[in-house]
Amino acid sequence: MDIVESVVQVIEDGKVLGRRIKSCIKAVGAIQDRVHELVVSAMYHYWLHGDSTYLTQLAKGITKCQGVQKQKLTGYITETCGVNWDTKNLRFKKARDSIFTKANGNEEFPLEILSAERWYEFELDNDVPTWYLKKVLQRANKSIADNESDARAQVGEAWSEFEALQKTMREVGLSETFVKAA
Q1: Is residue 1 part of a domain?
Q2: Most CB within 10 Å of its CB: which of 1, 29, 84, 157?
Q3: Are 92 and 77 in contact (CB under 8 A)?
């Protein structure tokens, strides 16, 4: 059996290895900053025209690269621009209550702020955002309403999960009175 020649060249000299590591880290940082420039430019386009095409193009394309943290990029854009990331169609959609665009009254593009903060430093919460929980429950409610006859047959099986959801919501901080009132 022949041994396949490796494509990776092992750097044996420690000094050379150290220089290459520093060079690579510097190059990765430069690429992240170039991506940030594109993010801010796409945000400017969205602010000016209300068109999220370039935000979507960037998020869809750049997140195909292994190692890029998609959640940080989409989270940063979502939070900054007030858009929603459509996970099914992989695109940004303008939120009804977005106030980021010029047409919605934001007269000045926040270039200084966006230049100072970086998408790759965006902090992801480990908690499920309240808007996400609300969206999940809205989808479930709509799905039940749209498929009423199928849902009727499944109510008995699903009831225990509904009760488990209520219990979990109480445990994570919703008051008894809110759950009972709802």
Answers
A1: no
A2: 84
A3: yes
